[in-house]
Amino acid sequence: MISIQKSDLFLLCFSIFLVQIAARKHRRPNEINIVNLLDRNVKLRCQSIKTDFHDRFLNINERFSFKFYDIDRGDMHFWCDVYALGGIDRTFDAFGGYAPLRGTLTWFIRRNGIQLDHPNATVFPWRDLRPLLSSLPRTMATGFTKRPPM
What we know:
elongated, 2 helices, 9 strands, 17% helix, Self-incomp_S1, self-incompatibility, alpha+beta, four-stranded antiparallel β-sheet, five-stranded mixed β-sheet, secreted, signal, single chain, 150 residues
């Protein structure tokens, strides 16, 4: 049977504590900001493999922010889903993946797409999932069928 003295146990716990403190010094804080500059409210959901911020609703000119450390495994890639009325639907990488890996990122949700850090640089344009109403048959576009003449 292995016997451990109190002093050995104390030294082991103290060394683990020192290793954790040293690891914290190398953690880099990151912050993601998402600003709604559309003329309507949007539904936003940001997540990583480990973290899920669930659905958030952003009013016009409202900001959503979250912070995390890049040493946390599984939190090196965050993506967000944006939905709004009028056919606005997009998933984009907010950190990692196709997005830069740097301290603070600010994303702007604008009329022509989602832009990074300054409002003139379009990074992710909107995908319009709605077909043009004029290209659909009349019954599909209006939802009504013509009555046959009597």
